[in-house]
Amino acid sequence: MNDRPRIAAEDGARPLRTRIQRRNRKTILDAALEVFSQYGFRGATLDQIAEVAGLSKPNLLYYFASKEAIHVTLLAGLMDLWLAPLRAMDPAGAPVEEILGYIRRKLELSRDYPRESRLFANEVLQGAPRIQDSITGELAELVAEKSALIRGWSAEGRLAEVDPHHLIFSIWATTQHYADFDVQVRGILKASPEETHDGAMAFLDHLYRGALTPKAADPR
Questions:
Q1: Is this model's pTM higher than 0.85 or not?
Q2: Domain 77-212 has what CATH class?
Q3: What is the pLDDT of residue 17?
Q4: In sequence order, what are the residues at sequence separation of 6 or more whose Cβ sits closer than 8 angstroms to the Cβ of residue 63?
Q5: Which helix (H) or strand (E) holds 65?
Q6: Which 3-state string (H, E, C) describes 79-102?
Q7: Which residues of 51-67 are buried (b: 16+ CB within 10 A; e: fewer)?
């Protein structure tokens, strides 16, 4: 993807006055994403982040007051990236194709943003202390909205009867797996990222299309 969205929100601690400041801030956040995605919040240290960023620790602390400040900044921007594929599900579209489109977007997210996916997974595994409000707020509200949409499609006979919440959970599991367990996937398949992605999408399309397509009425 050429137009990679920024995942870092401004924390308001200091104004970004110069090009060098903007560059250093981005360098720190990119380094932190790498470190946090590998070690989680608890395992990561400011020294590790500074080393990966190629900056001194005092220089890093000029931009961010603490490890948690960096982590919160990353997570704040990540939620928008994470919710975008589900928000794009169109009520006016063909139900099966809309859900398959959501699956495709989620799989592309895992392919193009594996570190971000692992950052999110690590946060959730630790009890989501820094994004709990987002999970119980905007994420829960969006899932409720799309679940009602899916339930309505089923009631109209345009979609097979499915539990909307568990359908969405299943989609998360079958798409994010390719980012969160990337080492395992690569070790088993020994395939290129493109081959892995194409094979996964073909399988998931077949799996979910079969599960979601309404069964033809019994002619008897």
A1: no
A2: mainly alpha
A3: 64
A4: 13, 14, 21, 24, 25, 28
A5: none
A6: HHHHHHHHHCCCCCCCHHHHHHHH
A7: ebbebeeeebebbbeeb
